[in-house]
Design brief:
The structure is a homodimer. Chain A is an alpha/beta fold. The first copy, chain A, folds into two domains: about 5-295, TIM Barrel (Alpha-Beta Barrel); about 305-395, no CATH class. Helices cover about 40% and strands about 20% of the residues of chain A. Chain A has 16 helices and 18 strands. Chain A has an eight-stranded parallel barrel, surrounded by six helices. The first copy, chain A, has a three-stranded antiparallel beta sheet with strand order 1-2-3. In chain A, strands 8-9-10 form a three-stranded antiparallel beta sheet. In chain A, α9 links the parallel β12 (about 210-215) and β13 (about 245). In chain A, α11 runs parallel beside α15.
C-alpha cells in the first residue's frame, strides 16, 4: 500500500505537462494544484474556514518553524499538523533544509526561492549562503534559531523524526539548499551530500501513511540537475523508493524553466513532482508546462499583506492614490470574498488606517487568484487548450 | 414617522431594567444588546461575515476617525457606512466628542471610559483632559489629528453634517466629554455647553431616516446628572426631540451604576438608552439593571488581540505557560468558532509565533462571549429570572 496514489488524467500534447490526481490519506488533490503555505501551522491572517472558502485544497507547513515553536511533540500530541491547525484536507511539510540555510545565514533577511540579482550577489562568495549561522558536516547541520539564537542540530534522521511527529501526508527528504550562484564545485559536493542524506531519509522514515518525496538539487548546472534526478529516481532502500519528488534550490529566474525541464525529463512519469517555493503566475505556467504537479509559495499572502493585489492585468498597489476613491472591486469578475464585498476605496482605507482586515482581504484575494489560476491551468489541460490559455493569460498579465 | 421605533417587551420586576426591541431602517435590535465596535469602519481583524457569525447585531463606528480617514464624503459616496464596510444590519456612529478630547489631549495614551485611578490622576488638574491638543470655545472645538497633527474643527453642526454623510441609523449629539475627576465647577460649565450644543444638533440635523440621540453628561455629581437628563429629555426644537439618549462621560468604576440610575430614573421610559463605552461583564449587568438598552466597548476586541480571553470563570491570559500544552478549548461549552475548532495550545502557539490568526481568534471569542452574555441577560429578563442569572454568572466570574 502506497501512502499516496498518483494518476495522470491528461497530458499536454507533445510536452511534459499533465493534469492528474494525487490521493492522500486526507483526500484527493487535483493537479496541477497550488498548495497554500501555512509556515507555522497557520495560513497568515486567515482561518482555515477562509482558506477552504477561497478554494484551498491543501496546506504546507514548515518543519524548521514548527520544530522551534511550538515543538513537534506538541503537534504530535495534538493529533498531528492537520488536527492541530484544524485543517481536514491534505497537508505537506517541507524538510527544514531551505530554512536552516537561508534563515540561519540570512538572519532578518528574506531569501526568496527565486532570487533577484541583488540578493544573489550577497551570497556569491561562499557556498551555503555565507554559512554564518549554519555549520554543515557530513552528519548534518548545526544552526541557530532565528527566534532566540539558541543552537540546534538537524540530521536527515532527525528531520524524518520531526516530520513523522508533525504527521503531514507528504513530507520531503532533508536536503542542503545552496545559493544559486555558488561555484559548481560546491554545488556538486552539496548535491552528493544531499543524495547520501536522501538515502538516510529513506532508511529512517517508517510512517507508512506518509509519503516521502526526494528533493532534487544541482543548481543551474545541467549535468548536476540531471545526475540528481537520475540518482534520486533510482534510489531504493530495502525495496523502498521515493513516493514523489521535490525540485529544490533557489533559481535565477531565467533558469527555472530549463532546470525543471532537465529534471522532469528524467524523473519517472508516474510519480508526482512538487516545485518548491514557486508561485508567481508566469512561473506557474512554466512549471506546469515543464512537468510539475504541485507548487507552494509565500508570495500570494506576503504580497497581499503588503497591499499588492494580483489582477488579470498584473499586480496593483492598493495604497496608490488613484484607488483612494475607486468604488469598484479589485478585480471585476473575481469571485473572492474581498472582491464580492468590498471596494478598492474601502480596502485602501483599511491599509491606510492600519486595520488588520486589510492584510486579511489581501491574502484572501491573492490566494484565491493564484489557487484558481492553477485550477484554470488544470482545466485548460483537460480541455486540450493549455497553450491558448497560457498565451491569453500572459498576454494580459504584465 | 420616527427613524427608530422602540418597544418594551418585558421589564425587570421592581427595577429600571427592561428587554425591548429597536426597529431601525436596517433591521431590528433585540435589547439589551452589545453593539460591536468598528471604530474605523472595520471590526478589528474580523470580516463582517465573522461578526455576523459570532452573533453581532450591529456595529458602531467613530465619527472622529472616519472624518480623518478616509473622510466622510467618500463614505457617503460609497452609499454610507453600512455599504462602505459591507455591514447590512443597523449601524451607529458616535459624535466624535469623546475622541476629540481624549485623543486630542492624550496623544498616544489610551483613556478608557471607565478610568483607573492612575489614569484619572493624570487628568485631575484641568477640565478637559488637560486640553493640550484640543481648544474649546462656545462655538466648538479645534483639535489636532492623532494621525499627523493637522488642525481640524468640530462644531455641533459639523458633527451632524459628518454623521449625516456617514449615514448610520443611530447617531449621537456632539458633546464635551470631561475627565471624571474634573472639578464640579468645570463639569457644570461643560454640561451646560453640551446642552446648548445638543439644541444646535437638533436644529441642524435633517436626515429623516437617521435617529439622533442626546448625550447626558454631568460626571459623578447627582445634581448635574439629573439636570442633564431633565434638560435633554425635555429639549424640543420645532417639534423635534431626541430619539433616544446616550449616557456619556468617563466614569470612576464604583460610580457608574449610580450615575446611570440617577439618569434613567428621569429619562422617558419609551426611548432607548445607550451606555457609551461600557462592556465589561460586571458593568453590563449593572448597566442593564439600571435601565440601559444598548452598549458598546472596545474591550472585547482589544483584550482578545492581546491574548486575554473571557471565560465564565474570569479572564485568562492565553500566553501563560500553563496553557502551552493544554489541548482543551478556551471555554468548554463555548459555541464560538475559536472554541469549536482550536485548542488553547494552538492559540497560545499563534500568539507566541506572532501569527495574526491569534488576535483574530481572540477577537472572535471575546466578542462572542460578550455579545452572547448580553443575549442571555435579555433572555433572563424575558424569563423573569434576571437576578438569579446575575448572581449565578457573577458568582463564578472573578
Amino acid at each position: 500500500m502506497k501512502p499516496v496514489k498518483f494518476t495522470i488524467d491528461k497530458k499536454i500534447s507533445g510536452g511534459l505537462g499533465r493534469a492528474g490526481t494525487i490521493i492522500t490519506p486526507h483526500g484527493a488533490l487535483e493537479t496541477p494544484v497550488f498548495i497554500v503555505v501555512g509556515t507555522k501551522g497557520s495560513v497568515k491572517s486567515l482561518t482555515t474556514e477562509q482558506v477552504l472558502g477561497l478554494g484551498g485544497q491543501s496546506v504546507l507547513a514548515n518543519t524548521y518553524h514548527l520544530y522551534l515553536e511550538p515543538g513537534d511533540e506538541l503537534v504530535k500530541n495534538s493529533g498531528g499538523l492537520g488536527k492541530f491547525m484544524n485543517w481536514e484536507g491534505p497537508t505537506f511539510t517541507d524538510s527544514g533544509g531551505f530554512q536552516v540555510f537561508s534563515l540561519g545565514a540570512a538572519m532578518g533577511k528574506s531569501v526568496g526561492k527565486i532570487a533577484t540579482g541583488e540578493e544573489i550577489a550577497e551570497y556569491t562568495d561562499e557556498g551555503n549562503f555565507g554559512g554564518k549561522l549554519a555549520q554543515i558536516d557530513e552528519e548534518g547541520v548545526t544552526f541557530r534559531s532565528f527566534m532566540n539564537g539558541s543552537e540546534h542540530r538537524f540530521t536527515p534522521e532527525r528531520s524524518m523524526e520531526i516530520q513523522q511527529n508533525l504527521g503531514a501526508d507528504i513530507i520531503f527528504a532533508f536536503d542542503e539548499c545552496t545559493s544559486p550562484m555558488a561555484p559548481k564545485e560546491y554545488q556538486m559536493q552539496a548535491m552528493e551530500r544531499t543524495h547520501r542524506w536522501a538515502k538516510r531519509c529513506l532508511e529512517s522514515h517508517s510512517k507508512i501513511d506518509q509519503a516521502l518525496f526526494g528533493v532534487i538539487q544541482g543548481g543551474r548546472f545541467e549535468d548536476l540537475r540531471k545526475e540528481s534526478a537520475k540518482v534520486l529516481a533510482g534510489l531504493e532502500v530495502n525495496g523502498k523508493t521515493f513516493d514523489g519528488f521535490g525540485i529544490g534550490g533557489s533559481f535565477v529566474k531565467e533558469d527555472m524553466a530549463t532546470a525543471v525541464r532537465w529534471v522532469n525529463e528524467i524523473l519517472p512519469e508516474d510519480k508526482p513532482r512538487h516545485l518548491l517555493g514557486v508561485g508567481e503566475p508566469e512561473d506557474l505556467f512554466l512549471g506546469v508546462e515543464n512537468g510539475c504537479d504541485t507548487f507552494d509559495c509565500v508570495a500570494p499572502t506576503r504580497q497581499g499583506r503588503n497591499g499588492n493585489f494580483y489582477t488579470n492585468e498584473g499586480r496593483i498597489i492598493i495604497q496608490n492614490s488613484k484607488f483612494r476613491e475607486d468604488l469598484s472591486p479589485v478585480e471585476k469578475d473575481c469571485g473572492c470574498y474581498a472582491c464580492k464585498n468590498f471596494s478598492k476605496a474601502y480596502i485602501a482605507h483599511l491599509f491606510r488606517a492600519k486595520e488588520m482586515l486589510g492584510p486579511t482581504l489581501g491574502s484572501i484575494h491573492n490566494l484565491y487568484f493564484i489557487v484558481n489560476l492553477v485550477k484554470k491551468i488544470r482545466q485548460s489541460i483537460l480541455d486540450g487548450n493549455f497553450p491558448q490559455f497560457k498565451e491569453e493569460f500572459l498576454g494580459k498579465y504584465r
